[in-house]
Write a structure and sequence with these properties.
It is built from twelve helices and eight strands. It is α/β, with parallel strands linked by helices. An eight-stranded mixed β-sheet has the order 3-2-4-1-5-6-7-8, with helices on both faces. β7 and β8 form a beta hairpin. α1 runs antiparallel to α5, α2 runs antiparallel to α3 and α6 runs parallel beside α7. The two termini are 14 Å apart. The protein binds guanosine-5'-diphosphate. Guanosine-5'-diphosphate (GDP) binds next to α6. The site of guanosine-5'-diphosphate has 18 residues, from α6.
Length: 296
């Protein structure tokens, strides 16, 4: 039976309430509950382990052991660490670059890169009044290029035609040249994903990064990936100097554990969340809301 972290924590408080002092056993039991709840919220195991280790280190410390209500103090530590991990506030997109500011989209196939490129272009155009150019460097899937073209026309931004016979780096360079000559504020470069981590894909996106020197390199990841998100995030963050994360498909029934995993593994802020297939389905990330989602 699914039990939320909140419920589990309440039962921990009840168990611990009677104790003026906590024993190692009390704390171990509390940590078991926290561990179960995080795993149920789909947080990756290595992330759960390090989270528990942090909480435990603080829980056996003075602030909890010396507290008048140790149960509450443990809960306080859990909340606190969760917030710390999730980031204290929303991090906006950084476009502080000589125009055009380049945004590079990275992630596996199906993560939502192309859709998110369209959504982001719409936001930048409507809210920041930016002149946006989008281009697809996905030479393997002509359908992906067409999909971006369609999205660009839907949101009313310019789309740069890519020739699938060209190398991704050449396409991106041509788009950048066009953006410079026509005074675009932002160039968003959508890239080719693969179904799984693949060396050729990583080499390709690394080359794109080196050629473009983007001000934002955003890792797009599907929240439904749950436990697997951590390996994907690790591979991308080891290959690229990521500047932020976009967590997609949060309108589904994902518990949000991927947010915690990805945040911890990359150390980079989640900047936006995808909340629907439509071009309007992109929202700034709110750490507090995500913490509540994980807490259940
Ligand atoms: P890409 O291969 O990374 O470019 O992924 P796509 O942008 O083609 O998206 C893959 C699928 O996920 C498409 O069917 C999208 O409509 C869907 N998708 C993307 N973002 C979201 C989201 O936030 N919510 C939902 N429900 N679907 C999404």
């Amino acid at each position: 039976m699914f039990d939320s972290l909140q419920n589990r924590l309440s039962s921990v408080v009840k168990t611990l309430r009677g104790h003026a002092r906590l024993t190692e056993d009390n704390i171990a039991e509390a940590m078991r509950e926290v561990r179960m709840a995080l795993l149920e919220a789909d947080v990756a195991l290595p992330v759960v382990k390090s989270f528990i280790a942090d909480v435990k280190a603080r829980a056996v410390g003075e602030e909890v052991m010396g507290s008048l209500s140790p149960g509450q103090a443990v809960i306080g530590v859990v909340h606190d660490e969760l917030k710390k991990l999730m980031g204290a506030h929303n991090d906006a997109l950084n476009l502080a670059a000589v125009p055009p500011a380049i945004v590079l989209m990275a992630g596996l196939q199906g993560a939502g890169k192309t859709t998110t490129t369209g959504k982001l272009a719409k936001r930048l155009k409507e809210e920041s009044k930016k002149k946006v150019l989008v281009v697809s460097a996905d030479v393997y899937r002509p359908a992906a290029i067409e999909q971006l073209k369609l999205l660009a026309s839907q949101v009313g931004v310019e789309w740069f035609p890519s020739d699938p016979k060209q190398a991704p780096v050449d396409i991106a360079r041509a788009a950048l040249d066009h953006a410079k000559r026509h005074f675009f504020d932002v160039l968003i470069v959508d890239t080719a994903g693969r179904l799984a981590i693949d060396e050729a894909m990583m080499a390709e996106i690394k080359a794109l990064h080196a050629a473009l020197n983007p001000v934002e390199t955003l890792f797009v990841v599907d929240a439904m990936q749950g436990q697997d998100a951590v390996n994907t995030a690790k591979a991308f963050s080891e290959t690229l100097p990521l500047t932020g994360v976009i967590l997609t498909k949060l309108d589904g029934d994902a518990r949000g554990g991927a947010a915690l995993s990805v945040r911890q593994v990359t150390g980079k802020p989640i900047k936006f969340v995808g909340v629907g297939e439509k071009v309007t389905g992109l929202e700034p990330f709110h750490p507090e809301r995500m913490a509540s989602r994980i807490l259940g």
